[in-house]
Amino acid sequence: MSQSVPREKVVFCDFDGTITENDNIIAIIKHFNPDGWEKIANDVITERKSIRQGVSELFRLLPAAMQKEVVDYAVTNVRIRSGFQELLNYCKQQQILFYVTSGGIDFFIYPVLSAFDIPEERIFCNGSDFTGERVEITWPHPCDDQCSNHCGMCKPTIMRRFDPAQYERIIIGDSVTDFEGAKLADLVFSRSHLTEKCKELGLPYIPYETFHDVVAHLQRTSSLLEERND
């Protein structure tokens, strides 16, 4: 019997609360503490508001004149989750495609990720505009015609570029921006709100706390596959 050709693995990794230990959008807004932010944030988490609407409303609470303070706080506040460089090394060694797919914002994602060897064309996030009176978020990666969730940075749209017949699509995430992508993924590494959502929807998931957990699972499954093919 001929063996089927294994699919190529492709990883779609969230940034806020995943690559980083903290949710940077919430950390920024909480730090500057504009009136009314808590209700907006809760409406997004509970899906009463779309991500695009909620994030827009959160940042409009901040004056654009605060650009330097906002950017400085966002970049210096970041804490990278343990094992991230090891995951990148593993993906490179195993020729696994690695994409950052984030509902976060360019003004902190690009500076933080510049310390890692990730091609900029494999980093997808939202944009920002500080030229007006209030901070405006821009949306260069909107939903395609198969998604109507107003994701902002639409992870399913990016994932659909990779044919599931050819690619094993793996998502690593933690929260509301990962919910729709998890429905398309072959494998979900989850924590926090994403784990709760996977349980609610009956989606299979692998819990993680650090990227060492993710690498260990990928190594185990790769070894088992090799043993079966020997």
TrEMBL record:
Keywords: Amino-acid biosynthesis, Hydrolase, Methionine biosynthesis
EC number(s) reported in the record: 3.1.3.87
Gene3D superfamilies for this protein: 3.90.1470.20, HAD superfamily/HAD-like
GO biological process: L-methionine salvage from methylthioadenosine
Organism: Paenibacillus roseus
Catalytic activity: 2-hydroxy-5-methylsulfanyl-3-oxopent-1-enyl phosphate + H2O = 1,2-dihydroxy-5-(methylsulfanyl)pent-1-en-3-one + phosphate
Superkingdom of origin organism: Bacteria
Pfam families: HAD (PF12710)
Gene Ontology MF terms: 2-hydroxy-3-keto-5-methylthiopentenyl-1-phosphate phosphatase activity
CDD domains: HAD_Pase
PANTHER family named among the record's database cross-references: PHOSPHORIC MONOESTER HYDROLASE (PTHR28181:SF2), UPF0655 PROTEIN YCR015C (PTHR28181)
Protein name: 2-hydroxy-3-keto-5-methylthiopentenyl-1-phosphate phosphatase
Broadest EC class assigned to this enzyme: hydrolase
NCBIfam families: DKMTPPase-SF, HAD-SF-IB, PRK09552.1
Pathway this chain belongs to: Amino-acid biosynthesis; L-methionine biosynthesis via salvage pathway; L-methionine from S-methyl-5-thio-alpha-D-ribose 1-phosphate: step 4/6
Described purpose of this protein according to its UniProt entry: Dephosphorylates 2-hydroxy-3-keto-5-methylthiopentenyl-1-phosphate (HK-MTPenyl-1-P) yielding 1,2-dihydroxy-3-keto-5-methylthiopentene (DHK-MTPene).
Record family assignment: Belongs to the HAD-like hydrolase superfamily. MtnX family.
